């Protein structure tokens, strides 16, 4: 296992990432609004989360990233819902990631980015709570791309018995 220039842990060339599917008491999901640092019109929505640092667990990374990106610390972290391999260009380089999505619930709905990296400050334009219906009707780009369908299934059926492997996404 190696390290990226950002201190993230890599395994076989893949950046180990923990993401959070954060739901409020009304079953709304929190998404961050991201964009290319040099092109705010090239934008998308995504779940909070980021790279595992050093020898921290994915659970610890999920909670740390959520706190840094949203200021939300009152969280009940649940099981891993989904796993996904993805590869995408961002900020002048290609990112190859092994992402684990954790279910979490909170009653704390006010958000405030408290510890963004320099790159995040240039590429994250805020956060928004979405209902499943809003997500299903959205014309914006959302990652993972089937998030509305995945969220609907989660709300209807509850968490899967074990992590579901999503189709790889290569952008």
TrEMBL record:
Pfam families: NUDIX. Residues 13-153 form the Nudix hydrolase domain. Its cofactor is Mg(2+). One of its GO terms (molecular function) is hydrolase activity. It comes from the Bacteria. Keywords: Hydrolase, Magnesium. Belongs to the Nudix hydrolase family. This is DNA mismatch repair protein MutT.
